[in-house]
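REQUEST ID: PR-0412
SUBMITTED BY: lab tech R.K.
PRIORITY: routine
TASK: structure prediction, single protein chain
INPUT:
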Amino acid sequence: YQRRVRGGTEITMMMGVACALMLVLVTRAAYTLVRIRAGTKAAARSGPAKTMAVLGSGGHTKEMVGLLNSLSTDKYSPLGFVVANTDQRSVHKIDDVRKHKDMCEEETPVFFITRTREVGGSFVGAAFKTVYASLWSLWVLARFQPDLLVTNGPGTCLPLILAAFVLRVIGIKEIRVVFVESWCRTRSLSMTGKLVYPLVDTFIVQWEEVARNYPRARCLGWLF
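STATUS: complete
OUTPUT:
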């Protein structure tokens, strides 16, 4: 009888600890979302921001390359890249960025993650791949330790933004996220944009009509 009582007490204590941890995480997540929504400024830094860019496929990569080439290495370096493991075209484009910015491979490491959904692929399968890719993204971000994550909307960016949010919530690393909506989104946000809108620090669009519908969006005009 005493063993049963002791066992029941231990289970109760474990459940209490688990509930307390869950409450802390939920509170931290809510606090982080409020800070993001309020546009809390990042702490001042003395050197350049360690930057990680997410490359997609086709037009996404073309636009991102144009954006990266316009960034000063004095303010944004070193520069890491994340590419889907099936996207060889974007890998070749990284060499163009290196040549334009006169940066070596050591300054521009490349990380690969699973593509969450191929064109025409199942949304159910994409959900499982997103979970897996998010866990892998935690490792990628923890290894590179970027100060800034820049993306322009390929599906590859979703697990990285989720991972960056998790690292922020649990207090390991505050990674600022900049999302640049594609030039072709003239009236509404992309699906990825709608999903990550509450989670990114700076949300940039290139058309005024889009900015009018999303208060946190900043319209900077055509960037590419």
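NOTES: The mean pLDDT is 88.
REVIEWED BY: pending
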